Amino acid sequence: MKKGILLLLLSLLSACGGDNNSSQSPAPQPENPDTPVAGITIPVVVHIMEHPASDDSRISVAKVHSQIAALNRAFNRQNDDLSQVPAEFQPLIADMQIRFELATTDPQGQPTTGITRTTQNIELAPEEYRWGYRYLHYSALGGKDPWPRERYLNIWVSDMRDRHGKVSLAGRASLPGNPPEEDGVLIATLAFGTEPPLEQGLHLGKTTAHEVGHWLGLKHIAGEQESCNVDDGISDTPLSSSNYGGMTPSHPSSTCGSADMFMNYMSLARDESLLMFSQGQKAAVWSVLNEGGERHSLLLNSRNTAAD
């Protein structure tokens, strides 16, 4: 990257490529078992970034709903492939107690479907905002401004294919503490939801679960450097020197002397291999949501909404 300020901003982001591209991940969070019994429901706004030259960018409402359903399965231990988790990891499968629903009220208090549609215009964006599709987060640069992160999870969906028609960036997430102007998750149209069109390996809505994991403070299972000397900060995810980018590994696969938890949502394996979050990851996420955490406002607003 050419500019120091851009490097500084992007150091606060986590980017996950369609196959094997990954960059900086969140700092480890302390494990905190203080999870409210009722859990949390997070309102979601999906910003569909349409492009005149891409029919696939005009995403249907059904496709949006399929992604919300996939998120809820992943974060509430409800996916029907949990039997594929190896026996040694079965006791570690976590119900994260986090549900997602499309927002019904916009920031001005008006009724909403939780879906916005914008015709993106990259021509309005300076060069430094085109890298990583950052311009999509700014209305003035041809994208769409986020809704307040204290109340919503923002998901931008855009056609991010290369000249060969393959997904060049499957997803990217802002981390807790990221500047509010770009807070949320960016997902490729061909990796979003479970309704076609989709790219094989990104077709089960699990890329979004992975990126929301980053948004809630989780790192890749192999940490930042894919080394046995680098950890993800979670005690019950074994050391691994591979994030299994674009792969469909079989158990047992070992890179650091013990079986790798490649079926964890925070690996970079293909969607069909991603099956679970761990109990340690649940504790880390709730340390971000609980009092003192960087996304505690979501929990406070969730409680206030429930009390209304």
Automatic annotation (TrEMBL):
GO MF: metal ion binding; metallopeptidase activity
Query: Any one Gene Ontology biological process term?
Result: proteolysis
Q: Which PROSITE patterns does the entry link to?
A: PROKAR_LIPOPROTEIN
The region annotated as signal peptide is 1-17
Record keyword Magnesium present? no
Which keywords describe this protein according to UniProt?
Disulfide bond, Hydrolase, Metal-binding, Metalloprotease, Protease, Signal, Zinc
Q: Domain Peptidase M43 pregnancy-associated plasma-A spans what residues?
A: 145-282
Q: Does the keyword Transcription regulation apply?
A: no
Q: Which domain of life is it from?
A: Bacteria
Record family assignment: Belongs to the peptidase M43B family.
What is the official name of this protein in its record?
Answer: M43 family zinc metalloprotease
